[in-house]
Write a structure and sequence with these properties.
There is one protein chain. A hairpin with a 2-residue loop joins strand 9 and strand 10. The two termini are 25 Å apart. The chain folds into three domains: 114 residues, Butyryl-Coa Dehydrogenase, subunit A, domain 1, CATH 1.10.540; 111 residues, Beta Barrel (Butyryl-CoA Dehydrogenase, subunit A, domain 2), CATH 2.40.110.10; 147 residues, Butyryl-CoA Dehydrogenase, subunit A, domain 3 (Up-down Bundle), CATH 1.20.140.10. The chain contains ten helices and ten strands. The site of flavin-adenine dinucleotide has 21 residues, from strand 1, strand 3 and helix 10.
Length: 381
């Protein structure tokens, strides 16, 4: 048992922090304010190799482990949570689909472009009528008679949907079974019939684009069926195990930023002739934030380590996501409190952290759904 990070892991973490402070942090507030996609941040991630960090080297990526990727994702998110989710979805929900379920031809066709950041990836599972109950999706995939399919329907809440080049789309290929009638498809957004619809106006992570995606008679060739026909739901759920570690990292990064901002402010701000950091009630807030952040980090590293060992990690990924997202919410609320009235204004970043933190308890499975997943695993014994 060893709690020390190796020199290689420290180099990844510190490299990501240095990059994020230089390229992401200075742009985060402006992207949020303008509700503008993190274009420059994403480009910088591509140039510096972070867009392909977990993609195998054979396909142009850095081939980093899940532990190393987690350390880096938390650092990117500490500086800009909107960039954090953009990279997390690109890697954890799109590129990882090709790495794990793609055939060699599909990997060679798409992974190098995703690894370089030339292409951005997305994941389209949710629909208006199917969120937590994802297997209820209705988007239809009808055989085209030549081994391919024609997709018809509408996907909702698609992260990066209007900027992505490749989307892993889940659609219904059989009505005989709810979960076992779904297939995963690799859909290029330049194809006829793929249209971004309404763009959501969001509370937080406003530099991340969230859009409806309309699929109007989209022809998908046989070569773009991902995995087995009718086995797409296990692809969707398998991807979420990894994706949830990514969102846990996003939450951890936000929480860490909240703590650092609070410590700085508490030392600088004076009331009653002394820094507010000298008041016990402020110290307790900082201590509780630090405690919860450490606990979340350990849960994340355990889940990522299990993933690296090729061992089951559904329960551990859900625990990490549940705990880290609650931690982000808690730390963001306390950070605003430590800042007093200043924390309620846009003069200080904690106002943005407060809005950004909220989503981590909602997407890639709400807190309630993480509890269901954990309970199911616990009851299984
Ligand atoms: C900003 C953003 C980005 C997103 N990005 C993507 C993306 O890239 N791709 C994608 O496919 N989806 C994406 N989503 C969708 C996201 O995963 C869903 O919003 C989420 O899974 C919840 O579904 P819902 O919104 O339909 O809520 P609902 O499922 O309607 O849930 C509403 C409430 O009921 C609770 N609930 C539901 N079922 C149960 C139950 N069985 N037991 C207890 N409580 C329950 C929920 O926890 C929640 O509190 C995104 C969403 C947002 C907001």
């Amino acid at each position: 048992m060893d709690f020390d990070l190796s020199d290689d892991l420290i180099a990844v973490r510190d490299g990501a922090r240095e990059f994020a402070e230089r390229e992401l942090l200075p742009r985060a507030a402006a992207s949020d304010e303008a509700e503008a996609f993190v274009e420059a941040q994403w480009k910088a991630c591509g140039e510096a190799g972070w867009a392909g960090m977990s993609i195998p080297e054979a396909y142009g990526g850095q081939g980093l482990s899940a532990v190393a990727t987690s350390l880096a994702l938390a650092e990117l998110s500490r500086a800009c949570a909107a960039t954090g989710v953009t990279v997390s979805v690109h890697l954890g929900l799109c590129s990882a689909a090709l790495v794990r379920w793609g055939n060699e031809e599909q990997r060679r066709r798409y992974l190098p472009r995703l690894a370089s950041g030339e292409w951005l990836g997305a994941y389209a599972l949710s629909e208006a009528g199917s969120g937590s109950d994802a297997a209820a999706l209705r988007c239809a995939a009808t055989p085209d008679g030549a081994g391919g399919f024609v997709l018809d329907g509408s996907k909702l809440w698609i992260t990066s949907g209007d900027h992505a080049n490749l989307v892993v789309v889940f659609a219904r290929t059989s009505n005989e079974s709810k979960a076992k009638g779904i297939t995963a498809f690799l859909v290029e957004t330049s194809w006829p019939g793929v249209q971004p619809g309404k763009k959501e106006k969001k509370m937080g992570i406003r530099g991340s684009s969230t859009v409806e995606m309309r699929l109007d008679r989209v022809r998908v060739p046989a070569a773009n069926v991902l995995g087995e026909v009718n086995q797409g739901f296990s692809v969707a759920m398998g991807l979420l195990d990894g994706g949830r570690i990514g969102i846990a990292c996003q939450a951890l990064g936000i929480a860490q930023a909240c703590l650092e901002a609070s410590v700085k402010y508490a030392k600088e701000r004076e009331q009653f002739g002394q820094p507010i950091a000298s008041f016990e009630s402020i110290q307790w807030k900082l201590a509780e934030m630090a405690l919860r952040i450490d606990a979340a980090r350990l849960l994340i590293l355990r889940a990522a380590w299990l993933k690296d060992q090729g061992r089951p990690h559904t329960r551990e990924a859900s625990m990490a996501k549940l705990d880290a997202s609650r931690t982000a919410d808690f730390c963001a609320k306390e950070a605003v409190q430590v800042h007093g009235g200043a924390g309620y204004t846009k003069e200080f970043p904690v106002e943005r952290y407060f809005r950004d933190a909220r989503i981590t308890e909602i997407y890639e499975g709400t807190t309630e759904i993480q509890n269901l997943v954990i309970a199911r695993e616990v009851l299984r014994g």
